[in-house]
Amino acid sequence: MDVVYWILIFLGTFCAMEFMAWFTHKYVMHGFLWSLHKDHHKKDHESWWERNDAFFLFYAIVSIGFFVSWQYYDFWAGLPIGLGIFAYGFTYFMVHDIFIHQRFKMFRNANNWYARGIRRAHKIHHKHLGKDKGECFGMLFPPLKYFKR
Description:
By secondary structure, this protein is mainly alpha-helical. The protein contains 5 helices and no strands. Helix 1 (about 1-30) crosses helix 2 (about 35-40), helix 1 crosses helix 4 (about 80-100) and helix 3 packs antiparallel against helix 4. The longest helix is centred in the first third of the chain and has 31 residues, at about 1-30. The model has no long low-confidence stretch (mean pLDDT about 80).
């Protein structure tokens, strides 16, 4: 039965991270930490690294915190929670940084309905270069209106 709980916690954490991505993007990145996120919308430097990339450090620290709580403080749910956060972060990196923004030249020829919907939703978000008016949504499950056949 412990395995079932472990899997449910992992999947619940992974799905909850989609909400956290939306919340963080709308209220933190397009809010009080816009100064870190704005170079993602309008690149004002020549570096491959963006100030926006610092946001992954926060979630990495949270994930590591759960691993530590599992390993050293006997919090058994720390492992599936930490892995759920890590898995979402890895998926987000693959979809957002590699697939959409092509920071590494991979998955360029993906052209199924999901790939087109994700690209369309992200393009709409990046249409606005400023802090306001950009539609914010989770990365893996944007609104269905973007998934036209």
